[in-house]
Amino acid sequence: MSTPWVFVTHLPPSAPSTCRVDADEAKHAAGSRRLRTGDRMHLFDGRGVIADASMGAFNRDGSIDAEIDALRAQPLLAPMLEIASAVPKGDRLGTLLESIGPLGAARWTPLDCAHSVVKWSSSHEPRARRVLISSCKQSHQSWLPQIAVSSSPEAAARDAISRGLQVCIAHPDGKSISVAGRISSPTTFLIGPEGGFNEAELQAVEALGARRVSLGSAILRIELAVSCVLANVRLA
Q: Mean pLDDT for the chain?
């Protein structure tokens, strides 16, 4: 069995040292992963640092103090990829979030599009963050994707370009992503709702320099399109 991964908010700057694991994560480690005092674990803080540690005894508040004996850094997957997408309905949002951690998206921006069915709310964020943490633990990815503020497609494209990223729009009229040339520079992918971006949204982002890429002729659900985009780039 592989060594379990446990999320912590902060890691100490050096080792050997001690790190507090909060009650929720400690309960999961002892319950679902059946760890006991002295068992090995990997701690990660979502910012690329991994700590090799052993489980300590439970404190009164349910937390544990893990004993760290080594720290190491895991580089962010290259190229850096970000996703800006419409929000799918119901449990499909969880499916979307479960894919972006393992496939190495650095950030997800929920889009408010003209054809959007679901509007993002800050009330969604705690659950979304839990799903992202769980997916990173399962896939052994030490970088936790950020959740950006909801925005329009134009605002998301403008923000990405201002930070030096190129922007691609998933659209059936674009060049196939598999033959569009290897994407080797930081990129944000815009993925619309199942009704697609409207013409005004397309014109606005293309006026900023965004280009269209196609995932094929089929109209994909949002979460499937996100997985396909990331997998095409990562496995190219």
A: 94
